[in-house]
Amino acid sequence: MRKINKILVANRGEIALRVMRTAKEMGIKTVAVYSEADRNALHVRFADEAVCVGGPKSSESYLRGDVIIQVCKDLGVDAVHPGYGFLSENAAFAKAVQEAGITFIGPTPEAIELMGSKLAAKAAVAKYNIPMVPGTEHAITDVEEAKEIARQVGFPILIKASAGGGGKGMRVVDSAEVFEEQMQLAVSEATSAFGDGSVFIEKYIGSPRHIEIQVLGDTHGNIVHLFERECSIQRRHQKVIEEAPSAILTPALREEMGRSAVNVAKACDYVGAGTVEFLLDENMNFYFLEMNTRLQVEHPVTEQITGLDLVKEQIMIAEGNPLSFRQEDLQINGHSLELRVYAEDPANNFLPDIGRLETYRRPQGLGVRVDDGFEQGMEIPIYYDPMIAKLVTFGKDRQEAIAKMLRAIEEYQITGIETTLPFGTYVLQHEAFVSGNFDTKFIERYFNPDVLERKPDEGVDEIAAALAAVLLQRQKPASPATATSETHTSNWRRNRTR
C-alpha cells in the first residue's frame, strides 16, 4: 500500500474542483496548475498550492506534460489526477508520470494505449465474444479496398478515425458515389485532430441509443460494474443530457451488458475508473463501441444512484487498496439526471457564446447538485470547452428526477451569455423523452430552434408581476436586509482584491 499525501490535479474548472473536494475530505493536500487565462479560476483558489504552467492555449499549459511533472517534483507531489480531457488518456504522459516515481491515478499506460485505438480495442475484446458492429478489423488507407469493404458491409456505413473521439474524423456515407470524397475528409480531419489518419469502416446503425457502463478495477484483479448511463441526447456526437439508470433496460439486459463491460476491462487488465460504451439498436441488440480510460463528465449520475464517490474510489485504488465491495453488494437506488450547462446558443446550432457571467445564481434544494467552476462576474475563456457546469438531480424515480431538474433549470439564473438551460427544459418536457422513446437522433428529429424563441405576447404576466413588485417596493422604506444585499460584494470581487 502507498499512502497518497499530495495530489496534483492536471486539469481545470469543475472537474479540478470536484477532485480537490474529495481529496480534502480524505486529508490529502492538493496542487492546482493553471494557465494565464485561468489565473482567477476557482480551482486555483481552492487548492493548497497553485502554479502557472503557461499561456492561455491548452498547448501552452494544460497539455505541457513535462512542465506539470516538473511541478510535481518541485512541490513534493506523490500522485497526479488527470481528470478528463487534456492529458487524461495520453499513454505517454501516464508513463512519464510513473517513470518520475509519481502515482498516476488512472489505468496503466498499456491499457490507455490499447483502448485508445478503436481497432486494437476491438481485437482485444474479440476473445470474449462481445457483440460488435460489422465492419473492418484493421485500419484502411487504400480507397478502393475501403470502397469494396463498404459494399460488402452494406450502405450506409460509418467511416471512423481509429484514434478518434468527440465526433472528429467521423463520416456517414450513404452510397458508393460519395465514398471516396468522404473518406478523404475523414482521414484529413483525423490527421489534424489526432496526428493519426488511420480509419476503419463499420455498418452505420441509424438510430441507436448510446448506453455506457461504469466499471471499477483494482490492482488485485477485482473488476465490477456500476450499472449503466443513458447518454443518447447529443449534439455533434457529444452528450448534453445523461441519466442513470436507462429508462428501457430490462434487468436481464442490464446484467448482460454489465458482464460484457467487465470482460472488456479484463481484456486490458484495467485498473481504476473507466467506461465501456455500447450502441443499442431498436431491437435491443447491443454492440461494443469503445472504452474511455478515465473518469467521465457524467460520472455524478452514477454516484447518485450507487452512493459511491468515484474519485475517492480512484484514489484508494491508486493507493493499492482492494475494492471494498463486490458486485452483489451494489444496487440501483433512485434515478439521476445530468444536464451539461454549456455556454452555447441552442437557437444558433449550439454555437459557443463566450462572454461574461453578468448574473450567476445556482439552484438549490434537496436532490440538486451543481458541479461548476465559475462565479458571477467571471469570464468564460475562449480557449477551452464551453461547459459552465453540470446540473445534476436525484429522485426516488425518473419522474421525480425530471421534476427536480425542471425546477432547478428554472431556478438557475445565468445572464450575459446564452446557455443550454432552455434546451434542457425543452427536452425534459418532450413526450419522446418523458416516455423514454428516444435515441441519438432526438435533436435531428424533434428540435427546432424556433421553440426557444419567446413569442411577443409571452411573458406579459411575468412583466406585470415584476412591475407591481417594483411599485410596491417603492412604497416601503429600505429594510436592513435590502440594504445589505445591495452593498454585498461577491466572493469573486473579494478574492481578487486580497
Description:
The chain has 498 residues and is of the alpha+beta class. The chain is built from 18 helices and 20 strands. It folds into four domains: 6-105, Rossmann fold; 134-203, ATP-grasp fold, A domain (Dna Ligase, domain 1); 209-452, D-amino Acid Aminotransferase, Chain A, domain 1; 460-491, no CATH class. 36% of the residues lie in helices and 23% in strands. It has an eight-stranded antiparallel β-sheet with strand order 13-12-9-10-11-14-19-18. Strands 3-2-1-4-5 form a five-stranded parallel β-sheet. The chain has a three-stranded antiparallel β-sheet with strand order 7-6-8, covered by helices on one side. A hairpin with a 5-residue loop joins β12 (272-280) and β13. α4 (91-99) packs antiparallel against α5 and α12 (398-411) runs antiparallel to α13. The two termini are 41 Å apart. The model is unreliable at 455-460 and 474-498 (pLDDT under 50).
Summarize this structure briefly.
The chain has 498 residues and is an alpha+beta fold. The chain folds into four domains: 6-105, Rossmann fold, CATH 3.40.50.20; 134-203, 2-Layer Sandwich (Dna Ligase, domain 1), CATH 3.30.1490.20; 209-452, ATP-grasp fold, B domain (D-amino Acid Aminotransferase, Chain A, domain 1, 2-Layer Sandwich), CATH 3.30.470.20; 460-491, no CATH class. The protein has helices at residues 13-25, 42-46, 65-75, 91-99, 109-116, 118-125, 143-153, 179-194, 251-267, 299-306, 310-318, 398-411, 421-429, 431-435, 442-446, 460-474, 480-487, 491-496, and strands at 6-9, 29-35, 49-54, 79-81, 103-104, 157-161, 170-173, 199-203, 209-217, 223-235, 238-244, 272-280, 286-292, 335-342, 344-345, 351-352, 359-361, 368-372, 387-395, 413-415.
